[in-house]
């Protein structure tokens, strides 16, 4: 029911992954149910079907890039909207059953993206260990707990859940790596503007890429709307046909962004609105970009007042 | 008083010029007073002072170009607005006192712009006549009537007023030449939109010409607003500082033009609104330019309705 | 040695995958050595180290999108260039040990991307079979051959190599799905222009995304260079910092593209050239996009000749 | 003959106007013949016919704007090129026959543009004098000398030539007003680049004004070419059809401007080159505008060298 806070949450499982850790930062989720899903598609479908109120799924990783399956699922099927973003530092640990010494580790289970992010550490500390690909960080921890591998690269929450000892923490080569998650619901009124919001869109443009993409960027630039993310994904029809995922600064309720959205609606083959929600500032260094000269909210208000005077025949 | 139709008209004199002829096409002027002014500045000042309700002055000629003094006067001083445009074919005649034969004409009085426009005819028909520059078409007719010159190049109305005989009509080299006049009043509510309107502006831009002028054109292009005229005039401060006079398709009350005007207000150093008024279509060949794909009024309405649904949380 | 045709080839293994199939379409590879690599990184590093002359790796899939690891490897480390593209229809088959009946299949091994692409077929024909994720199409075939699973989703070449029987072919939901592969070498003179070429680039732009990306597109649009692909990838520094991968129509030796490349070099933080090579047209429906009006090669030649006349003082 | 310095000069007469004063600042003209012409057209035609080597004509005035007749004559007929610009402060004086006292002046002869520029001075010092329009500054001085008027507004050179006494000098309301003149010759190799040059062009664009003019400005902006002047003039065909006169920073021999010129040639209906010549800096406050970031000559050279390496297969 619109307006009712969500109580039934689903997240990309298995248990003990970063997605569960991200969900636990959402206050309402602490008091609600938290159910793991086997895939992003399953998580989103349970929201669509009304079996869950909200799903927490990964959007992108600062090392690995966009999570294609989430983008594809958001762009197709019944519409869903993002109501919140959660940005989580990616802290990989090397975990093993209690009593295991680092020097004795001969095999390490890891999801390929995880072992890629820890390549430097592995080369320096376990040059002779065999790295075995598994299908998730949770599966790595489970395999180490079951004795299939000597150790696992996993999230701290995965080590805890499988009662593993942490042999080394913060082993990722990029210490600042983060993953961005989205809390996704069925359509409803967006959360109110906070003054520092993000609006996510999926847009489809005509075949002639330079001209059409140029038009899209001009619609944004002319209104001083900043793009903080642009990702392209194939539409599946043919090579060279894309849907673009944009994150814009601002809220659908803002005058400036409202005007830009109407412009995109006019020039794009299709625009799908994926939500307006507060920006999660995980670092004090990441400041809102100020509006360019002449494009602040005050400039918009001044221009609107001026136009009203013109229309009324008052030119003073 | 706003809303009261004008009854006291002033026009660029002297009597017997194209401006008087243009004024007589304005229905209200037939029943009001019509007073000639010695200059465009005098005509506009009498409107500003409240001594006249409206002034009819020339804006541009299809051969000679913009009438700089009118543009300068509109851009400076107390604001005035155009409420009507009148486009008049420029039909020059060669006129002389009754009894004069074309073959006997040895001197022709003409305003320099008039003799320029009839250069071909003069070369073919009066190769040996001396062309004497005078300061207006009306002065040419008056001089011929007074016997100072054998003949005059003037407007038909000038020949009639000075009781001259027309020795040859339509003597201009460009048979399609026209002059565009403006009826100018003190600020007030603009005439209602007709669906085929013009909006005139004077804009001042920052010194870096390429970037600033590019921004202005982008504000218009993004909204599909067509420019039918762009003239630059020096501001008088220094070489290289200009004010630009723009005629845009549309009415200040239109959504599309309203959005573009607000954009210009934000990116320009100054925008002076010079009026929205019905286009005078003097030729059936001059058709309204249709809006580019995605930029019709229907597209604007669709985008506005879509945005309203987004804001309400309805994504259907 | 530059100019010497490559004889030692490496490809993304294991044997029996689409990459091997793609490599066999390269004439020189039929007569050279073909060695599988365990990862894209390993394949490219063996070229960088001089242990192989060329590597065949996947670039993108019309369903799954860009192959991030290939893009990342091309953008970093010692420069490499693409000398050829190979586009291969993705034809998945369901394969099993000889004697297996479709009705008896209870478990299917598949790479997650493969099972995603065959989801509809599996739902219709094997609704009760368990789909088990494995790490490559080749591993799926090997697992089925070893009796670990009843069947495998794999490439035709994988079924053949592991002596499996094809129970069903063309089982992908998108019958037109293709994968695009690149043949990559150490830098050297590009293959000669053919009139229908692709140039690949990796570009880094400044933080302000709208303005900077707009500049990039303007550099291309002004020269009439068409973009057939644009992909963004995070640089790994922080969320919101991207490298863009562009595929442009044209060859580095062309005047038009040369001028555009110089423009990108000037406005981008960095441009990495990834090669000019003949376009592989896998479908007659995919035609070269003709140059926009005024931007054909003939227009370029005309403008260059005109400029030469101006500089020589001949204005004819 | 190309390369031969001009010796036969013509200028817009009559004698004693600013044009003669401007011509005397050209060193070669001091030793050559200097013949007044009755009109700009006559001056230019005598160069076209080979009767003169160069003509000095006015281009624009910082108060009155472009000299339309000069622009029109340059845009039509046999091509001519500007080889030098001369910028002259406009210093109007009030001159009368010797013995005349200011207080006794009852009639003042003046060209209308001159009296407009001195309106404030006349109102303050001669509020009761009649201002009589005449056809040139030279005619005003001649009329005062002949006793037809009590005084004349004219150039200092005009007072001297007609042996008039200067009753007041620097009487223009804008003390910084200047007029810009052009020295015009038959086509030939342009003067060598000086590092601070101007290139003048006349361009014709297609009917859709916003899009076409936007393309023109993009061609310039993308190459960092600055516009110091843009003037529109009707082509005479119909209202709304214009030729644009542009003054760009740079020389036709420059790489940057050469590339931009080729771009204009491709997107415009027609481009007429009107010359590259040294900028006349009449004020130390008017400095060359530095090239935008990434668009300096050094950036152009760097990009050209980089492209050459790419084409040679050297990527280092």
UniProtKB/TrEMBL annotation, chains A, B, C, D:
Listed InterPro entries: ACT-like_dom_sf, ACT_dom, Chor_mutase/pphenate_deHydtase, Preph_deHydtase, Preph_deHydtase_CS
Positions of the Prephenate dehydratase domain: 8-186
Domain ACT: 201-278
GO terms for biological process, alphabetical: L-phenylalanine biosynthetic process
Record-listed E.C. numbers: 4.2.1.51
Cellular component terms (Gene Ontology): cytoplasm
Reaction(s) the record says it catalyses: prephenate + H(+) = 3-phenylpyruvate + CO2 + H2O
Molecular-function GO terms, alphabetical: prephenate dehydratase activity
Entry keywords, A to Z: Amino-acid biosynthesis, Aromatic amino acid biosynthesis, Lyase, Phenylalanine biosynthesis
SUPFAM superfamilies referenced in this protein's UniProt entry, alphabetically: ACT-like, Periplasmic binding protein-like II
Site keyed Essential for prephenate dehydratase activity: positions: 179
Pathway(s) where this gene product acts: Amino-acid biosynthesis; L-phenylalanine biosynthesis; phenylpyruvate from prephenate: step 1/1
Enzymatic class: lyase
Protein name: Prephenate dehydratase
Provenance organism: Micromonospora globispora
Organismal lineage: Bacteria, Bacillati, Actinomycetota, Actinomycetes, Micromonosporales
Gene designation: pheA
